[in-house]
Amino acid sequence: MPNRTLEVKDLSTHFFTQAGVVKAVNGVSFGVDSCKTLCIVGESGSGKTVAALSLMRLVPDPPGKIVAGSIMLGERDLRALSDAEMRRVRGNDIALIFQDPMTSLNPVVKVGKQVAESIVMHQGKDKAEALRMAIELLDRVGIPDAAARANQYPFEFSGGMRQRVMIAMAISCNPDVLIADEPTTALDVTIQAQIMDVIRDLQTTCNSCVIFITHDLAVVAEIADDVMVMYGGRTVEYGGVDEIFYNPHHPYTWGLLGSLPRLDCKTRLTPIAGQPPNLITLPRGCPFSMRCKYVRRECRDQWPELEIVGPDHGVNCWIPVDERRQLRAELDYITSVCVSDVIT
Amino acid sequence: MITYIVRRIFQLVIVLLGVSLITFLIMFAIPGDPAQLLAGKNATPERIAEISAQLGLDQPLYVQYFRFLERLLSGDLGESWALQVPVIDLIKEYAPYTIQLAVAAVLIELLGIPLGIYSAMRQYTFWDTALTTAALIIWGIPVFVLGVFMQWFFSLQIQQWTGIDVFPLTGAGDMMLGILPGSWESLRRLILPAVTLGLIEVAYISYMQRASMLEVIRADYVRTARAKGLSERQVIKRHAFKNAVIPVMTIAGIDLGVLMGGAILTETVFNRPGIGLMIYHAIGARDLPVVAGGVLFATVVFVVANLFVDIGYALVDPRIRLEA
Amino acid sequence: MPADGFEQPKRAEDVVTPLDGVHGTFLDGVPDDTGTAAIEGYVEAARKPEGFRAETWRRLKRNRLAIVGLCIIAVFAVLGIAEEIAYVTGIGSGEPGSGYLAPYDPNAVNYTLSPQGKGSPPSWSHPFGTDYLGRDILSRTLVATRISMLVGIIAVAIALTIGLILGPISGYYGGWLGAVIMRAADIFFAFPYILFVLLFMTVLGPGLWNVFIAIGVLGWATYARLNRGSVLSVKAMEFVEAARALGASDLRVIFRHVLPNTMAPIYVAVAMGIGGAIVTEAALSFLGIGIQPPDASWGKMIADYLSYMWAGSWWMVTFPSIFLTVTVFGFISFGNGLRDATDPKLKE
């Protein structure tokens, strides 16, 4: 019986700015089982990063605020913790890998010391011991000559190497939850593959569950167990990775899949028309309604309730199930016979 | 790192050569005959020609320049027209007072660093807005204006109210140990000018420090530190502080360089001996060698100070130190 | 890489952290990672894409101190222009070349208003008091505005012109010539500015035109360097343009946004430069080597009246000092505000 490491219910995080309230995350719920990987998918601005930051309570307080929801890490309610207790959780029980490795490391502090910092703080080891452990970690994430490299400064590392350092830093205290916020977006494709290897390796050793945030479906296909699709601060669909890829139910998900180039057969890249939503002036209903090809009146006015369409597969959409299946059938790129592995 | 230093020294030599050339050109190559200047308004043409020859002004320009450079490199800055003493001696006599003032002012201005950090940490609060506005206003006050009013209030008014001459209006005190004030007399006369200079600089430094700190606090690596679970205080101390302060230290270093060249306005207002006052008197007497000598001295000091600041920066920033 | 197919809004690398001066910008505190950086992108995209000037003005408006500075500048600019017009046309005195726009003739000596030669303190008829010759200080202060504004504008104009010539030459041709010009700029930067100007003035002698020349000619280096920078960016653009075919919309972006941004530091430098020139002239006059009578400037007034301060006549020095300080503050505030408003790193 898989246990739920992390359970998030109805999380809402808003930013109260001079121009209005930015509803970055709006009633999002998800959970991750131990040793599983959840991919949160969506374009920039869908709220995925803010959701991740909310889990760590790292949203800067003016002007951001977690206004609703519960975040349960095992038995603990993270929202109820004091600041000091939450600090003990950060880096220790939940760790975060940021997107841009070039700027995420302190340029004037040696790399080994930066990795060892969490160890010293959370595990109470002395500096020498922590440094030794840091070197081991650097080795583990694939940095050659780790002992010498630990004594170097970040500028002496390439982008891919720096991201490995970030990963080493994140796993240093064996966190229960490892959040990776688009860790490969800022890197070359070849380096991306290397980083994905490192992460997959972590998955197999299974010390934590992974939340992987990305906008790249190819990456999702590679490593996800479960997928959550976000748009405009809300979850529009979630499910197992196979379900999402082979049985997608939400028009936005169709759009995402449609814009994946395929090697096995000729289909046109079908972009989703329109612009990302303005998170201050969201419609009361579905945020995607402004761009959805199949929109109907209810979509703008009311947020559709959760509809279970398969095992552990839910969607929020006003289009009735049968109609959806029909519409989907017309999209050849989803149902076409040349379904071969996008997943390699 | 060594390469860096060598390169900088090479640049310095070129710049100093250029400085000497420009100084020479200003003195001898622009309309405004120096011989005329020296001879005075009512001199006869013969007198002017005599002086001209004396100064070597009848030679072609490049010969003059080489002679000029020659003399400079041997430490000869010419002789004061008004006082008939070698300029270099005057400089040697007045420099310690100026250095004393410069160091004191810079020490005071370093207070701007904690002020700036404090302001940055409390952004949007009343104190931040108040301090920043105050900094901008004070920064804008011309130093001689501030000096006049400081004097008026602290020297004159206090004396009038209390009868005690706490901050005397002139001089610098006679006893000095090297560049340290050697007596209470010295100290009393140092305080007001130093505070005047320092106050304006504190305003500037705190503004810059605040900006630097704000930028660093927003940096990605600071966010990483927070994500590791460090307390805000630890984040500041271990990650933000160093990165935020380094640029401001370089400003302070440059200030030191500028001030050592003679804070002419302050010294004039407070009638305090120093390179600045020396130049001021020379201006009044149209004593060109002294003015030029003083300017050259100040420039050399400034350029060398800049070099030290750059080297200091290189020492601190591993990216330069390790010459990647 | 990302093959979603639809248009990506700006990413974190493009839209950077909001930061501010004294004003509060719109999205302060929102972290600059992808999610919320894109929020900024949305809000901005929701507005019509505006040009550089409109955007700068919008950001500037938020900075209260900068607006105060701008108002101050406006007031003194108008005053200066008015005085100049009066001077030239002879309003008030009846003779072109010595006119003024003030309650009294600034040069009218009146010993009765100066008992004991110490002038008379502020009163209803003479709000700023009178000086040791009985001249009305308010009038003198107003008239002195003309000189200060004149110096600020003309000196900076000279420096800017030289910089506008040498800078682009250095940037465009590069190579030996470019390097020499930049070295020359380095050399000019090496001198402490006011001493440099002093040296120049000692040789040239005092006088208004000499002040213009000294401050202007010696200040070219800043503008040359900035101009070179903008020329270099344009060169980079052209190179890029040759290397790939840019769509028309990208070109428009470049001309509407990138290019004006490279000019931005120059505007800032001009604002600060005028303030600096005014202070420098005041300092020169204070030291006795600036403008000469009958011209009056605030610095000269302060120098002339200084000794009277010790005798108790505080008002003589005070009012010109206030005018000077306020003017300089105006330029600095505005310059700072302009810098913040055009700094791409501070984009909201």
Task: Tell me what the structure shows.
The complex is a heterotrimer of chains A (344), B (324) and C (348). Chain A is α/β, with parallel strands linked by helices and 344 residues long. Chain A contains 13 helices and twelve strands. Chain A has an eight-stranded mixed sheet with strand order 6-7-8-3-9-10-12-11, sandwiched between helices. A four-stranded antiparallel sheet of chain A has the order 2-1-4-5, covered by helices on one side. Chain A starts with a strand and ends in a 9-residue tail after the last helix. The C terminus of chain A is likely disordered. With 324 residues, chain B is mostly helical. Chain B has a two-stranded antiparallel sheet with strand order 1-2. In chain B, a hairpin with a 2-residue loop joins strand 1 and strand 2. In chain B, helix 5 runs antiparallel to helix 11 and helix 6 packs parallel to helix 9. The longest helix of chain B has 34 residues. The mean pLDDT of chain B is 83. Chain C is elongated and about 75 Å long. Chain C contains eleven helices and no strands. The N terminus of chain C is likely disordered. Chain C has 348 residues and is an all-alpha fold. At the B-C interface, helix 1, helix 7, helix 8, helix 9 and helix 12 of B face helix 5, helix 6, helix 9, helix 10 and helix 11 of C.
